[in-house]
Amino acid sequence: MSFLTQNDNSDFLPYINWGSQAVQWTKKEGEGKASFTPTTAIFDMEALKVGWIKMEQGQSPIKMLEHYKGTVPAMPDEKTTNQQGREVNAYQKGFSVNVLFGKDFGEDRLFEFSTSQKGSLEAVAGLLEAYEAGKDANQGKVPVVTFSGHTHKVMGKGSTNIPNLSITSWVDRPVELDVTPATVTSNDATPVANTASAVATGGSEF
What we know:
mainly beta, ten-stranded mixed sheet, two-stranded antiparallel ribbon, 8% helix, 41% strand
């Protein structure tokens, strides 16, 4: 069991999000959002960040995230009141990962996928396990992930819908993953850009 499945404010990239109740993917589009149906995308799992996210209605999320290989930050001791009127932790377990869609996706194809939603956490935890199992045999490559519907799961007294994400191939690392807008996390002093080495992908869809 990983950190993501146990019971960087990135304001410069557009976001994608999985709605477990609406059972659909959405993406930032202009000043709003639009639903879409993804097929494949590169997930930059080597740069995955995990930690804690505080969601407040009408405000940008507050994130305390570190690289998944590092030390997980301590959860802030802060409480809030949920919709049922119960006192709960203000911060919830969360993650952030950059996602690159294919060249036919449109002008904007690099997005941030960051949330504390339980179904998404479980999906990305599964991706991380598969990534760790396959990365040594695919040095210098990044995983291409296929989106294939969702799975309904009962969790405690509630339930969620988990997006089905699976690694179906590996490709050379596209330069677009490394020439990213600067992002900053809540515990960073200055914006930091990804500086990992890049490999051109030639005729790849990415």
